[in-house]
Write a structure and sequence with these properties.
Mean pLDDT: 94
Domain Phosphogluconate dehydrogenase (decarboxylating) C-terminal: 125-276
Protein name: NAD binding domain of 6-phosphogluconate dehydrogenase
CATH superfamily of the largest domain: NAD(P)-binding Rossmann-like Domain
Number of helices: 12
Order of helices and strands: EHEHHEHEHEEHEHHHHHH
Low-confidence stretches: none
Strand order of the largest sheet: 2-1-3-4-5-6-7
Distance between the termini: 46 Å
CATH architecture of the largest domain: 3-Layer(aba) Sandwich
Domain Pyrroline-5-carboxylate reductase catalytic N-terminal: 3-89
Helix content: 40-55%
Strand content: 5-15%
Structural class: alpha/beta
Radius of gyration: 21 Å
InterPro entries: NAD(P)-bd_dom_sf (IPR036291), P5C_Rdtase_cat_N (IPR028939), PGDH_C (IPR031663), Preph/Arog_dehydrog (IPR050812), Semialdehyde_DH-like_C (IPR037161)
Keywords: Oxidoreductase
Number of domains: 2
Largest sheet: 7 strands, mixed
Number of strands: 7
CATH topology of the largest domain: Rossmann fold
């Protein structure tokens, strides 16, 4: 069996991963620095933690389930104790893309991140939706082998499929691809626009629209508008009135050349560096 060291096992993400690794073909040593986290893990899956030194001494794969801004710092703190020929998996592209990872040619680096279940779900079981992923609703994942032998790609993808299960697709990408998708595409643009949609809904309520009516109207329209925009509803088209409203609204809402301002290599690099070292970038 492949031995995994799961660092940050008692955090919110760590417990999710530990739960999915339980019962898999992998043997897991759980590492958690906080007493609260150790108890959370114990309550969730009945697992005890071991010391970081003990876990790293035996690990063939190390998974860092830690906050994005700490990935580089923690990688530097453990790298001297990582066995040659092992693989280090991180769950976000910011630190490696920003050059925050330590130099270690005999250790593979691999990044993986969940896409989260789609707003247009397929093969979803009856009952409550698993919006985040990793419990019941299938999700895709993205993966990149940053350095190391090709054999480690297959091993690390298997680990990624296990920790994020159920997984319906694993997309092999480059590190740059993943950095473009997050933060630029999904957070800088996607999350910002999602909050703008909520602000617009709240503004409608402030202007007298019943809250329940506004929520139903916005969420229903988001669904059909996304289906048209992403060609999910292939026969769907925006009405002439909607197209006119879109043309009129774009210069009011978006700056000229906003895509270049967000997606240029310089902008993406500045964003990931700000994630890793927010006070330094400021």
């Amino acid at each position: 069996m492949t031995k995994i060291a799961l660092l940050g096992a008692g955090g919110k993400m760590g417990v999710r991963l530990a739960t999915n690794l339980k019962g898999s073909r992998f043997t897991v040593d759980h590492v958690e620095v906080s007493a609260e986290g150790r108890q959370r893990l114990k309550d969730a899956i009945g697992a005890d933690c071991v010391s970081e030194d003990a876990a790293l001494a035996e690990a063939e794969v190390i998974v860092l389930a830690v906050p994005d801004r700490l990935i580089g710092k923690i990688a530097h703190s453990i790298i001297a104790r990582v066995k040659p020929g092992s693989a280090l998996i991180v769950l976000d592209a910011a630190a490696p893309y920003a050059g925050e990872m330590p130099e270690r040619a005999d250790v593979s680096y691999f990044v993986t991140h969940p896409c989260h279940p789609s707003v247009f779900p397929q093969n979803v079981k009856d009952g409550e939706r698993d919006h985040f992923g990793g419990v019941s609703d299938p999700q895709a994942i993205v993966c990149a082998l940053i350095q190391g032998p090709e054999a480690h790609y297959a091993l690390c993808e298997e680990v990624a499929r296990t920790i994020y299960a159920p997984v319906n697709r694993a997309h092999r990408c480059t590190l740059e691809n993943i950095a473009v998708m997050e933060p630029a595409m999904s957070e800088t643009v996607g999350a910002t626009l999602c909050l703008a949609l909520r602000e617009a809904t709240d503004e409608a309520v402030r202007r007298g629209v019943p809250e329940a009516a506004a929520m139903d109207f916005m969420l229903g329209h988001i669904q059909i508008e996304l289906a048209i925009a992403f060609n999910i509803f292939k026969e769907g088209k925006f009405s002439d009135g909607a197209l006119h409203a879109i043309r009129e609204a774009r210069p009011l809402i978006f700056k000229e050349n906003w895509l270049q301002a967000v997606f240029s290599p310089e902008a993406v690099m500045a964003s990931v560096k700000d994630i890793c070292n927010p006070r330094e970038a400021a």
